[in-house]
Specification:
The chain is α/β, with parallel strands linked by helices and 426 residues long. The strands form 9 sheets. It has a 6-stranded mixed β-sheet, with helices on both faces. The chain binds adenosine monophosphate and magnesium ion (MG). Magnesium ion (MG) binds next to loops.
């Protein structure tokens, strides 16, 4: 006889906190060395250190004249031009200037000693000529001091950072042609439902093509994992169990469908029969209320006579995501992503929300936190957001047009035009 399922439906905040707590317990994965461009989008597994000061010399940020600001206390000031310093010029050419002197200097060139500012004037003087400067400059104007961006030996990029364009450029700037990154976790995707057929199949009149495996594969890749797509599981416990066992061989298992209260929603029962524990079996959100998060611990080693485990147990996390396509997408984003990111070695981060004014009023039922597909538009100070008309959590067509979700707190039923609302980008 099967044990009964205890339903644990949490508020969005509690469910999210639960996921973050579990994610914090996940140990970092193995590492590999990859070339610089292949490291884009990967998670750094080392601390990248500056191999020299940045900038390596006091750098002029403009074309102009390198001057001592003390020479410009009396305006106008006439300074004699001692020469020209180009980008890449050897320091020995004009190592310093003295009082009353200026050097013509280019963007990216080293500022000589004795100069603490670069002043721009229209006139281009030749060597030995005198230039007239008619305004004072501040010490440091248009000059970045040596090492101001980073000192040699200081950390430039922290371990656990997802490498973006600037981070890759920074690694290049410090001479790193290869980087150590974390290996990508493997994430099994198991979609369930008697009505679901493969994308290549010709669906019968009441059959539905499997789309969830594809949205999830994209989200998994985007979050730093490698998707492993399993065959579609029927709503039948034995076949379902066999495929779940298969999925639990990956680092993380994502199921879709079969987690509601229906007679053929078997996912939770089968997992429970496999000694899984559940952190929650629902969250007060829409779409995505029936979302399930749990862990299946398994003793891999032989047991002693007393039933004690010799080898530490290995446990695998799983999510049962609701089958409605938009619910699947939203619940991955809210709950599965932080676990996957932790498995990918990424430092934890909180959900980020923007705020925008509502373009058309919203009326919804209260009780659940809503994530409604929406379009954020406008620019500069006048961002506006409008919820897309949709047929509910099965409406992929509406969601594909959305560039964000409007997030509505559970106690708000009516929101007027012009009110500020939270927006989650997608
Ligand atoms: P369920 O969560 O199993 O009750 O499924 C909810 C709705 O999502 C049903 O209309 C299913 O047909 C649909 N659905 C479930 N899995 C998929 C899938 N992999 N691709 C597209 N639609 C699905
Ligand atoms: Mg189903």
């Amino acid at each position: 006889m099967s044990a009964p399922i205890h339903s644990t439906v949490l508020s969005f905040e509690d469910a999210r906190r639960m996921v973050e707590e579990q994610a914090a317990c996940i140990s970092v994965p193995a590492t590999e060395s990859v070339d610089l461009l292949s490291a884009s989008g990967r998670v750094l597994a080392e601390v990248a250190v500056a191999d020299r000061d940045l900038p390596p010399f006091p750098r002029s940020t403009r074309d102009g004249y390198a001057v001592g600001s003390a020479d410009l206390l009396q305006i106008p000031a006439r300074l004699s031009v001692v020469g020209e310093i180009r980008a890449g010029e050897r320091l020995e050419k004009i190592p310093s200037i003295s009082s009353g002197q200026a050097a013509s200097i280019m963007t990216g060139a080293p500022v000589p000693e004795g100069a603490d500012a670069v002043v721009m004037i229209e006139y281009t003087a030749r060597d030995g000529e005198r230039v007239e400067i008619t305004r004072a400059v501040l010490p440091g104007e248009n000059v970045v001091p040596r090492g101001a961006e980073a000192k040699q030996g200081s950390p430039l990029i922290e371990r656990g950072l997802r490498l973006n364009d600037a981070a890759i450029a920074l690694a290049a700037a410090s001479g790193k042609s290869r980087l150590n990154v974390y290996k990508r976790p493997r994430v099994a995707v198991l979609t369930t439902g008697d009505e679901i057929v493969d994308v290549e199949a010709t669906p019968g009149p009441t059959q539905i093509r499997n789309s969830n495996s594809y949205s999830l594969a994209v989200q998994i890749r985007e979050a730093g994992g490698d998707p492993v797509l399993l065959p579609v599981a029927p709503d039948e416990p034995h076949a379902l169990r066999r495929l779940i066992e298969e999925g639990l061989k990956s680092d993380l298992l994502l199921l879709t469908g079969g987690v509601s209260m229906g007679r053929y929603d078997l996912v939770e029962q089968v997992l429970l029969d496999m000694q899984a524990e559940f952190f929650f079996t629902g969250a007060k959100i829409q779409p995505g209320r029936p979302v399930v998060f749990g862990k299946r611990s398994r003793a891999d080693g032989p047991s002693t006579g007393s039933g004690q485990v010799l080898v530490p147990e290995t446990s695998k996390y799983f999510f049962g995501l609701p089958g409605n396509p938009v619910s699947t997408i939203v619940t991955f984003e809210l709950f599965a992503r932080p676990v996957l990111e932790a498995m990918a070695g990424q430092a934890p981060r909180k959900l980020r929300f923007l705020h925008a004014r509502l373009k058309s009023e919203i009326g919804v039922k209260t009780g659940l936190r809503k994530f409604l597909p929406a379009i954020l538009s406008g620019e500069f100070e006048d961002s506006q957001v409008e919820v897309i008309a949709w047929q509910g959590s099965g409406d992929l067509a509406a969601t594909a047009r959305a560039n964000c979700y409007v997030v509505i707190p559970p106690d708000r039923g009516q929101i007027a035009v012009g009110e500020w609302v939270a927006v989650m980008m997608r």
